[in-house]
Design a protein that fits this description.
With 157 residues, the chain is mainly beta. It is built from no helices and nine strands. The protein has an eight-stranded antiparallel β-barrel with strand order 1-2-3-4-6-7-8-9.
Length: 157
């Protein structure tokens, strides 16, 4: 079955939005990360992409992070693929267990950090309403800088 006009339009256009799930790995505590993202395209060459992520506990450390990134997508091959650099701000709240922590203790230390993100990604539009992507970024935070590598699936509307 063929496509008719805008039914098969791929790639970001002004006003395009997407929401999805993201999961991967972070080097900060050598653990998994998972979260939700949203993207809004102000034009075909600029979009904002906030997300919220959870870094799973490993070595007594876990975290929540909120990111606001700007992305500049460059379409490739019939607009089904796009590469994008990203840069943005990051707020992360780290939860670190104290050395003498026991199972039922409330002996946790919390460290809040404000930082910067820099990186890039590639995305593939499976259908006009479904995209897959891979993203790699460096999260520059005092004492907790790390690489974050994620894959995501998103609904485009």
């Amino acid at each position: 079955m063929g496509c008719f006009f805008s039914e098969c339009a791929y790639g970001a256009e002004r006003g395009e939005k997407s929401i999805g799930l993201r999961g991967g790995y972070t080097t900060s505590n050598k653990s998994a990360v998972a979260g939700l993202y949203f993207q809004y395209a102000f034009s075909s060459k600029f979009r904002l992409a906030p997300d919220i992520m959870y870094t799973f506990r490993n070595n007594g450390t876990d975290a929540y992070s909120i990111n606001m990134n700007a992305q500049i997508p460059f379409s490739l091959k019939d607009n089904r693929f796009a590469l994008y650099p990203l840069a943005g701000i990051n707020y992360t709240s780290w939860n670190k267990l104290k050395e003498d922590y026991k199972e039922n203790d409330d002996a946790k230390s919390r460290f809040d950090r404000l930082g910067l993100n820099i990186g890039g990604g590639i995305e593939y539009y499976v259908k006009p309403t479904l995209k897959l992507s891979f993203e790699a970024k460096y999260r520059a935070l005092k004492d907790y800088g790390s690489g974050v590598f994620t894959m995501s699936i998103g609904y485009v509307f």
